[in-house]
Amino acid sequence: MNYYAEDYKRELITRYVLPAFGQLVSAEESKINEIVKRCRLHNAVKYQQLESPGPGWEGHLLFSIQAMVHSYYYSMDKSCRYGTNIWSKCRFIFNDSGLLDGEPRTDYIEILESGEVLSISYADLLDLMEYYPDINNAIRILAVRQGVQYRKRNALLLQSPMERVKQFVAENQSFIYCTSQEVQALHVNLTRVGYVRQLEKLNSLKLI
Predict the structure, then answer these.
(1) 112, 178 in Cβ contact below 8 A?
(2) How far apart, in whole angstroms, are the C-alpha atoms of residue 156 and residue 176?
(3) DSSP state, residue 103
(4) How confident is the model over 42-99, as pLDDT tens digits?
(5) What are phi and psi of 89, to 5 degrees?
(6) What angle do CA 111, 115, 118 make, to 5 degrees?
């Protein structure tokens, strides 16, 4: 066992993961030990795929320390990608239906900058949820919040292309700073050319 690596994981979990739960999860030493034991630490590079579609039970909860992450769905019929979610650093990343209901995962998850990522398998996370009621409650609350974000995103996509891009740019400055226009376009359901065209219109009207 690499004790230095274990100590470093503990430091990351104590400094970043537990505070991200807020008041939802208490920080007993025995609980931290269990989390550390079940987590893995990865050094990811920019645009590395962290997860691909598959059975629900093969999924992982991910936690990026320094970098933003996004997910997308690839349509085989249309041979193109559609953005599905964006996470800033130090946020919990998981597929709630895959974790809680065992449904297949359909998204690719990709890191947008190089950085450290903690992961825990759904099997290990479900064990922790069964043993620790506060972790169970926290994950279910996070799942509800993800549902709210999903509905908000769907509402965005119902707007006109110009309004869609205007709102997206206003709400996602950090994401725009670290990604290409091609990646940004995925999340407003436009081609890169269509996205750039809307940006030019908004700039000419001084709306962004």
Answers:
(1) yes
(2) 17
(3) P
(4) 999 999 999 999 999 999 999 999 999 999 999 999 889 999 999 999 999 999 999 9
(5) -60, 155
(6) 85
Structure tokens that stand for 40 in this block? 């893995």
Tokens of 168: 């997206």
d(CA 95, CA 143): 8
Which tokens belong to 115? 């950085």
CA torsion 204→205→206→208, rounded to 10°? -90
> How long is the chain?
208
Against a cut of 0.90, is the pTM above it?
Answer: yes
Q: Write the single-letter amino acid at 42.
A: H
Say which DSSP state 57 is in: G
Is the torsion defined by CA of 67, 88, 52, 25 positive or negative?
A: positive
Handedness of CA 80, 179, 156, 141 (dihedral sign): positive
> What top-level class would CATH report for the domain 3-134?
mainly beta
